[in-house]
Specification:
149 residues; alpha+beta; four-stranded antiparallel sheet; 4 strands; 30% helix
């Protein structure tokens, strides 16, 4: 339990020192592009929504830096795809990882007795699932592919 608290504290410290990329921080970073938008489009971006026709700057403000960028070049033009993933851990069960040893005094004989107790640990697997794909052509969103869950 102590290790989990220490790990959580280190993650929080890293986020605090490294700074988080949030929608408000990205709006501040790309303020010129954001302030040129109408109120309805600004509200959509604040909610993290993107639509066909948005520029890469607007998609960046709404969704952040993509996890992957793919470029497709043909004879006639070049297109780009931004992929955003979701990350989670999947519980797989538990397994015996060893034994814990206890030394107790037998009340009848007053002798030390060693007791071994199995120790179990949970097993998790990291999962990466593609969440959304934004396809750009001529610096505008041409299509949006999103996984429905």
């Amino acid at each position: 339990m102590f290790k989990i608290h220490r790990l959580l504290a280190l993650v929080c410290l890293a986020l605090f020192l490294g700074g988080c990329s949030t929608i408000p921080s990205r709006i501040k970073e790309k303020s010129a592009a954001f302030s040129a938008l109408d109120a309805d489009t600004q509200n959509k971006i604040r909610l993290g929504r993107v639509e066909v026709g948005y520029s890469p700057d607007l998609v960046y403000i709404a969704l952040g830096t993509p996890d992957e960028r793919l470029t497709q070049t043909t004879k006639t033009d070049t297109s780009e795809t931004w992929i955003y993933n979701s990350y989670r851990q999947e519980y797989l069960g538990s397994t015996r990882t060893g034994y814990r040893q206890y030394v107790v005094i037998d009340p009848k004989t007053h002798q030390a007795v060693v007791i071994y107790e199995p120790v179990y640990s949970s097993i998790y697997r990291d999962r990466v699932d593609e969440r959304i794909r934004i396809n750009f052509k001529a610096s505008q969103v041409e299509s949006i592919e999103q996984v429905k869950r």
